[in-house]
Every structure is written in structure tokens, then in C-alpha cells.
Write a structure and sequence with these properties.
283 residues, alpha/beta, Rossmann fold, 9-stranded mixed sheet, 45% helix, globular
């Protein structure tokens, strides 16, 4: 007589379990292959009158990118910053959060394909360890998100075992609409279950998450992935608070629902800095 055979498994009688498993399956089957490409930055421009704060952060950023730093404290307008960046062929610009919002808005506006320099906004005197931990909001698998992932992985890998990428999967109006379709109309006029929204989001982010995990394993740094179903702006702030350590937030300047619906990327970046982010990079 043969021995009995038994398998432990997570029961499907809970809708949350089924939705989670379906989301993981769809993420695996829909994922587009993605190879992380470190950003090519040869010069980091420290611009503005904040002096030591901006220069110190620019030096830390440049060190992680293998770049050099050029400082221009006299660059106090968007035109002056742009001219200085063009003169030294800067791939990244570091500016103080105290700069006028219209200056930041002008620096970030009009570049929707990632062709412009990355803009880093810093406040106070962030510790260099701010660059070791990255909070990475993810909405969908598109060029903006891929640039953000590449930047996050590059910074975290430079920190070695102290490095952390905390990716936050966030819902959008499009993924919420998809979640209602997945619910088959069962939700009626009510909000669909968070697990169903998570399934819709996970189905679009499989390639990015897989690339993050592979790169983290190879680079020896930590990768964490979580899902938040609320409004992007609120959930980014909540995730930042939950980290309980200095961190840099990385945003793609295009492809951000939180930006499209509520103004320029500079506004969201400034709010994140004010809320406790050591720095925000808009890539």
C-alpha cells in the first residue's frame, strides 16, 4: 500500500488569495523583458545659493555615478541653470528646495521623453546615507518607470549591503477601471476590492519588479516591493513615513498620474521634500 500524499497550499476560498495569485501569474506572463541600464552621467551641476548643502549632495550623487561635480552658486534663475548645465554638459542638476517653485517648474517642464538632465531637489542638510535608500513609486511599465528603476538600482548598488530600493506599486485611474472589469461588474457602484486593484497593477509591473529583484540579488542590496491602493500623492507620503530612515524619492517626470492630474512634477517633488524626503530626483 502506498503512502498518502499531501500538499499544503493557500486556499482559494479567500478572494484575496486568489486575486493575489492571479496577479502574480499575469505579471509573469505579461512581463516585458527589461535590462537595467545605469544612467550615463559624467557631470553633476550644483546650482543655486544653498552652497554647502547642494554641493555636498551633488558630490555624493556624483560619487555613486562615477561623475564629476561643477558648482555654480550664481545660477539663480531657470535660464541661468539651464545655461550652466549646457555649458558643462550636466547629466544631473542639484538645486535647493528653497528655489522658487516657478524656477523648478521651468526646469522640469517641456521634457517629456527623459532627454533632459535629471533634477535633484534637496532641503536642509541631508545625510549622504539619504542616497543609500530609494523610495520608488511605480505606476506602469513605460519609459518613465524604466528610467526611474535604472536610477534606483544604480544608487542602491553603489551602497552595497546598506542599499535599499523600496518599490511602491500604485494604482491609477486606468488600473482601477481595469480592476472593475476584472470584477465582472460584481462590485456594482461600489469600490472594487483592494486585492483586485492589486491584481490589475501587478499585471503591468512584472517586468520591472523582476528586473529589480535580479539586480538587487546581483548587487547585494535589498529590494522591497509593496502595493498601496489609495491616491498616489497620499500613498507616496505614507510610504516615505513608514521607511523611518533618510531616503531619496525617484520620480519619472512623464507618466506620473499624480503629476498629470495635479500640476507639474516640481509641485509633488517639493511636497515630498517638505514631508521628510532627504531628496527627490526627477528623472
Amino acid at each position: 500500500m502506498t503512502a498518502g500524499w499531501h500538499r499544503d497550499y493557500e486556499p482559494f476560498e479567500l478572494a484575496e488569495n486568489m486575486e493575489e495569485d492571479l496577479g502574480l501569474f499575469e505579471a509573469a506572463t505579461q512581463a516585458r523583458k527589461f535590462a537595467i541600464q545605469p544612467p550615463e552621467v559624467h557631470t553633476v551641476l550644483a546650482a543655486g545659493a544653498a552652497g554647502r548643502t547642494v554641493a555636498a549632495f551633488a558630490a555624493g550623487l556624483a560619487g555613486r555615478l562615477g561623475a564629476t561635480v561643477v558648482e555654480d552658486r550664481a545660477a539663480g534663475t531657470a535660464a541661468a541653470v539651464k545655461a550652466a548645465a549646457a555649458r558643462v554638459t550636466a547629466g544631473a542638476i542639484v538645486v535647493p528646495a528653497a528655489a522658487a517653485p516657478d524656477l523648478l517648474g521651468e526646469l522640469l517642464a517641456g521634457v517629456d521623453d527623459g532627454a533632459g538632465p535629471t533634477v535633484a531637489i534637496v532641503a536642509g542638510e541631508p545625510a549622504l546615507t539619504t542616497l543609500d535608500a530609494v523610495l520608488l513609486p511605480l505606476f506602469s511599465d513605460e519609459p518613465a518607470a524604466r528610467r526611474s528603476v535604472s536610477w534606483a538600482c544604480t544608487l542602491a548598488a553603489a551602497a552595497g549591503t546598506a542599499g535599499l530600493v523600496h518599490a511602491v506599486e500604485l494604482s491609477t485611474p486606468a488600473t482601477r477601471q481595469e480592476a472593475r472589469a476584472l470584477a465582472g461588474g460584481r462590485a456594482g457602484g461600489e469600490e472594487v476590492q483592494e486585492a483586485t486593484v492589486g491584481r490589475a497593477v501587478a499585471g503591468h509591473l512584472g517586468g520591472l519588479v523582476a528586473a529589480l529583484q535580479r539586480h538587487g540579488l546581483a548587487g547585494g542590496y535589498t529590494v522591497e516591493v509593496g502595493f498601496r491602493a489609495g491616491w498616489p500623492r497620499r500613498e507616496i507620503l505614507a510610504a516615505l513615513d513608514a521607511l523611518a530612515r533618510p531616503a531619496t524619492v525617484i520620480l519619472g517626470r512623464d507618466g506620473l498620474p499624480a503629476v498629470r492630474s495635479q500640476g507639474l512634477a516640481s509641485r509633488l517633488a517639493l511636497e515630498l521634500v517638505a514631508a521628510g524626503a532627504g531628496a527627490v530626483l526627477v528623472v
